[in-house]
Amino acid sequence: MQDQQQQLAEHGRVLAQRDQALAERDALLQRKDREIALREAKIEKITFELARLKRWKFGAKSEAMNAEQRRLFEETLAEDEAGLREQLERLRREAAAAAAAAAASDTTTKAPSRRPRRNPFPITCAVSNTTTSPSAPTAWSPAAGAR
């Protein structure tokens, strides 16, 4: 009986130690999470500041336009935007028409396979069969190279 009580007391101490270690780990994780959040905020702040400095350096002030240039730029911008909108609308109509045509056709047409084909050998060329024998040593051969 007393042995069981000792085992239970020992088990209780082990559980208490484990709970304390887990609490310490949780506190450490929370501290590291705060540090990471602080670093991410700092990185975001520096990135924003860098972008702002680039705008100051390379922004409209350094490339200022006079009134005539600004008017021409705005006209050109409006024309380009209208042209792009028209082109986008035309492409959307074409895509819708192509999708409708594909859905309407029941048969799928498969493109013929394109295999490379060789032209036949011309009859006018002479064909000769030449046989060589390995008995005579040549300038380089495995036997000559092994010497």
| Shape type | extended
Rg? 41 Å
- What is the helix content? 55-70%
Which regions are unreliable across 5 or more consecutive residues at pLDDT < 50?
A: none
> In this structure, how is the largest beta sheet organized?
none
The end-to-end distance, rounded to whole angstroms, is 92 Å
How do the helices and strands follow one another from N- to C-terminus?
HHH
Strand percentage lies at: under 5%
> How many DSSP H or I helices?
3
Mean pLDDT: 77
Structural class of the secondary structure composition?
mainly alpha
Number of strands: 0
Written description of the protein model:
With 147 residues, this protein is mainly alpha-helical. It is built from 3 helices and no strands. The N and C termini lie far apart (92 Å).
List the helices and strands and how they pair.
Blueprint: H1 2-58, H2 67-104, H3 142-145
Question: In a few lines, what is going on in this structure?
Answer:
The chain has helices at 2-58, 67-104, 142-145. The chain has 3 helices and no strands.
What keyword list fits this structure?
mainly alpha, extended, 147 residues
